[in-house]
Amino acid sequence: SGEKPLVGKTVLVTSGPTHEPIDPVRVLANRSSGRQGHAIAEAAARAGATVTLVTGPVAIPDPEGVAVIRVETAREMLAAVEAALPADAAVFAAAVADWRVAEDSGQKIKKGAGGPPTLALVENPDILATVAKGARRPAIVVGFAAETERVVEHAKAKLARKGADFIVANDVSEAGGAMGGEDNSVHIVGPEGVESWPSMTKRAVAAALVERIAAALGART
Ligand code: C5P
Fold first, then answer.
1. Which residues pair with 50 in a beta bridge?
2. Where does the chain show beta strands of DSSP type E?
3. pLDDT digits (tens, 9 = 90+) for 100-154
4. Which of 144, 151, 165 to mutate to test the pocket of ligand 1 (most atoms within 8 A of CB)?
5. Is the CB of 143 inside a 6 Å radius of any atom of ligand 1?
6. Ligand 1 mean position to 174 CA, how many Å?
7. What is the value of pTM for the model shown?
8. Ligand 1, atom 13, residue with closest C-alpha
9. 30 is catalytic
10. Rounded to whole angstroms, how far apart are CA atoms 221 and 66?
């Protein structure tokens, strides 16, 4: 109601990268800062929701008023997300590694006569698609899409393929750099079409997205 439209609602958010071990000292990772996901968790809490944030390794502080669960790998993230269900809404803002190393070496891989090792990769579970198509699907499921070209077109395809209600698409090729930066410029791709929001801070994107989620939840109850 009014200022706190998510009172009585539970919201699950994923954020940050995942780290996939190669050996005890090395990982496969990506450059996600977690800023956008953490801002969404904090905005949902400010809107009155009970929020669980499942985050990969990040260098930013925990958002206020949120239960934080830290994980490293995609498989740990999926398990933590499933343990946190049910939820009224879920926002998948994590940059989950698409692949992990097929066989994580128990010992540090040594440089040597054999030359550089070949790393065989296997696909990680798709957390968003698993939850969106699962029995305990939250009423509202929001995904993200970081693209460098044909952003909206790819987001529309992703909406259908993953079973999300909304895809927040951001052009990570644009100057100003969403990756790691403070600002973000996004398109909200939903069943009724596309809204392109002007560039704004990740905090502002988070607040506006939480309003959209509250409206969508309201429309369903
Ligand atoms: O397919 P792509 O990785 O571009 O989709 C991005 C969306 O899917 C994001 O919302 C991301 O959090 C989610 N995702 C996921 N698990 C994966 C890969 C992506 O939840 N393994």
1. 10
2. 10-15, 20-23, 26-28, 50-55, 67-70, 89-92, 99-101, 121-123, 140-147, 166-171, 183-184, 186-190, 193-196, 200-201
3. 999 988 899 999 878 999 999 999 999 999 999 999 999 999 999 988 889 889 9
4. 144
5. yes
6. 20
7. 0.94
8. 128
9. yes
10. 24
